[in-house]
Known about the structure:
Layout: E1 2-7, E2 10-13, E3 18-26, E4 32-39, E5 46-51, E6 58-60, E7 68-73, E8 78-83, E9 92-100, E10 110-111, E11 115-120
Parallel strand pairs: 2-11
Antiparallel strand pairs: 1-3, 3-8, 4-5, 4-9, 5-6, 7-8, 9-10, 9-11
Amino acid sequence: QVQLVESGGGLVQAGGSLRLSCAASGRALWSYRMGWFRQAPGKEREFVADITYRGDDLNYADSVKGRFTISRDNAKGTVYLQMNSLKPEDTAVYYCAAVRSGSSWSNSDTWGQGTQVTVSS
Length: 121
């Protein structure tokens, strides 16, 4: 079983930057794809980005391409989401998640507690 703890959220002005971190612990982390999702008030949770263990396959939602960067430091067991050029519509609770490599995100049951990101205009 994998446990996830996010940090790094906060309040930032539009155009600013934040870096979220997700500390992962547990066994066989090498077998998990890691990802970030977000949920804004009144909306469904949506995919933001994900990354394989080796970092050779990254995916982004169209809404964040060119502004957000996902990365991972396997020695530290940590996944990052660097968010630049933030917009008010990026305001949401951001969740870190893990899924077995080769599985669909719809099968994931491993989530962090979430961290709030608020972007003011």
